[in-house]
Amino acid sequence: MAGVSNQNERVLDYSVHSFSSCLSNYAPEKIQENKPSDQLSRWSSDTNSPPQFLVLKLNRCSIVRSVTFGKYEKTHVCNLKKFKVYGGMNEANMVELLEGGLLNDSVPETFTLTHEKEGFEMPCRFIKIVPLLSWGPSFNFSIWFVELRGEDDPSLVKKSVQFFHEFKEREAIRLCLKHFRQRGPKFAGVYDALKASIGIDLEDQRLTVLHNTLVLNADYTATEEFMANAVQEGLLDNFLLGQDYTPQWKRIMIDPTVISDDANQPGMRGGHQMCIDPVTETIYLFGGWDGTQDLSDLWQYHIPSCSWKKLSTNTEAEGGPSARSCHKMCLDTEGRQIFTLGRYLDNQYRSSDNLKSDFYVYQIEAGRWTLINEDTSAVGGPQLIFDHQICLDSEKRTIYVFGGRILTAVQGSHDETRLGASASITYSTNASGNALSTAAEMDTVLSGMYSFHIPSGTWQKICDDLGVPIMSGQKNSPIIRARVGHSMLFHPGLRELFVFAGQRRREYLNDFFAFNVDTHQVRVIWNGDSNVPSKGKDTHVSIPATGYTQRATIDPDLDEIYVLSGLSKDKERRDENVQNSFWVYSLKRNRWSCIYRNENTGDQYWSMMQNLEPCPRFAHQLVYSVSNKVIFPFGFFFVKRGDFVTKNFQLHLF
Q1: Closest listed residue to residue 457, CA positions, set 358, 384, 333, 372
Q2: Rounded Cα gap, residues 500 and 541, in angstroms
Q3: Where is the Muskelin N-terminal domain (predicted)?
Q4: Of 69, 189, 387, 583, which sits most exposed with the smallest number of CB within 10 A?
């Protein structure tokens, strides 16, 4: 996790206290100098056999909040792919502060190290860095530069030192109480005397009652009543939230042969967009591509009645946006409005007049479209983009736009096809819902991050691709890498945008970061290393796989992110046997869990299971009903042997 700057923080002075080993020309003291162009300015172990470590001693006791690792100006096989950092008041008793890894590039990386107990940050005199894996598997470890930041003002640190001394003493006494109670009646007097003289409780009084009821009295009926009451009082809520879900799929049955525009439900499509109104429990669907043409129809789906209603056959004819796909939508519950931005255009339609980034709003109650901007790039907003992401902050009435590929008249080649996955070149456009090109990847221009203030109708650029947020006062702020095909979700309580995955040209990303919309500070949750905390059905795979279409949503009440990962968009990466997987990320526990993966693969399996669970897909969309805890995926393209089909499914999480 990347550190957040505090105005009282400063660079902390330290010395190298001890180390495991080193090569003669690469002394550990060299990590105190930041010389990225000097290949000799680093510590290198003489072996990669564990344990290898560096122990740094701070000049005085400090609250260490972050560590920054500098790097060589080029990629290097000895860079740390995986490492741990420990800290403590003495060398013999340290706690783990961080497990992470560095990207194999030249960009310095900053990680938070704060360890808290009851609101007090742990003071440190020693910091221990333990390399675990280098980017070259058989190479030794190298650290080029280390900078520690935090607070060392004695008046501030003293309170933490005093608290942790008292905390250790209190825990030692509680361990003694636990030991005496476990020894039985023989030590009951010692237990009572120690507890009475010190005034420290071993545990919550309710746990003492449970111990007496179950252990001492063996009253199983009373124990069951106690546990039932505990559940009713919410005492086990945190434990239950930590358990894996068991998803249940339920198909919303429609007539698969009805695909015309006059039908009572949307026809098959991909690259469309959906948003949900949690107040009226209504899903809105607009646009997409049906394999032949872009669509401009607008639909609503009422969840309680399970019914579709067509709101418009042609939105352009009613003053709204033209037919499009690979656009994005968001819904403002306060203003009762739907906003849509972006689209994809085939090469033959990319003229200077046609590459304007129009921006529309739909008034839900009035059923009316309004053009906000004819070209957002002319008023400080993004250029015409596709495969971007947008989120809306209802409290501040602000829309955030991030990523996406900028359309230009000279981009791509005349050989592009919308359904690149089945063509001879590796180009995916509307059909994938995430249009990506490798044919002209050197000309690919990615869009940065923007915000739109609804009441004033003004755009603001937050940062460009590979930039730092302009308004952020964060020191050593991580750069933000623009991307396509990513996920971006807004948590109104935490006031953060969560961004993960996506693609930059040929690079598939699996980094994960949060952007604070109020302070514009970036918090790196994971920098792209695959070693992250996880549990569930895929303990050997800790995060959703890169290069596979993922659709994500968030539950702010439960502090959880849900990700449905399916078919790869890239023909070269697509497996013959494809699988669905469903992941949950807990913001509180910083942990991924895979709660579903189909057991079998192949045409025979999917033919048998098509009404029981969704087949792997891309170009689909999904929305999430917070009140019902239900996810609604709709539509997709599944390309295999020249076919594509579309289905509707409903996922119950509970």
Answers
A1: 372
A2: 17
A3: 10-204
A4: 189
> 223 near 210, Cβ under 8 Å?
yes
User: Using 50, 70 and 90 to split pLDDT, how confident is the model at 467?
Assistant: confident
Domain ranges of the chain: 10-152, 169-241, 248-621
pTM of the full structure: 0.76
Long-range interactions of 360-369: CB distance < 8 A, separation 24+: 360/320, 360/321, 361/337, 362/298, 362/320, 362/337, 362/338, 363/336, 363/337, 364/277, 364/336, 364/337, 364/338, 365/336, 367/311, 368/318, 368/319, 369/315, 369/318, 369/319, 369/320, 369/321
Region of poorest pLDDT, from 113-122, 396-405, 407-416: 407-416
- Quote the CATH superfamily of domain 248-621: Kelch-type beta propeller (2.120.10.80)
Provide CB contacts within 8 A for 395, sequence distance 6+: 492
Identify the CA nearest to 146 among candidates 114, 115, 103, 109.
109
| 19 contacts: CB under 8 Å, gap ≥ 6 | 28, 43, 53, 54, 55
Which has more pLDDT, 609 or 551?
Answer: 551
Q: Do domains 10-152 and 248-621 have the same CATH topology?
A: no
- 10-152 in CATH: which number? 2.60.120.260
Q: How far apart are CA 532 and CA 257, in angstroms?
A: 45
pLDDT grade for 548, boundaries at 50, 70 and 90: low
